[in-house]
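Lecture 7 notes: from sequence to structure.

We start with a single chain of 125 residues. Read the sequence below before looking at the structure.
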Amino acid sequence: QVHLVESGGGSVQTGGSLRLSCVVTEKSSSGHVMGWFRQSPGKEREGVASLDKAGNPAYGDSVKGRFTISRDNAKNTLYLQMNSLEPEDTAIYYCAARVAWRVDATLDSNRYDFWGQGTQVTVSS
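Now the structure, written as tokens:
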């Protein structure tokens, strides 16, 4: 079982930055494909970024060039650095992991097996 706990959400103005963290309590986050997703009211859950076991990232089109996913294996922590935030980025952000034997990163939320409780990000204009 993988337990994920997100933190770092908050309220910022347009153009601001936030860094989300996701602590993985199961061996090491390097053993799982990891991803960040977000969901706002009335919208489907959207894939924001993913990181495969080799550390190769993938990003959703709406965040490319603004968000960066990374991982600190020593701290078993996944990060999402969010810069140039826009009101459209307002959502609950979730950290997710695939079972250890999956190796392909994906932005499809249906392919993730473990989820955190989410952290709210609000961007005001």
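The CA atoms of residues 63 and 90 lie 12 Å apart. Keep this in mind for problem set 3.
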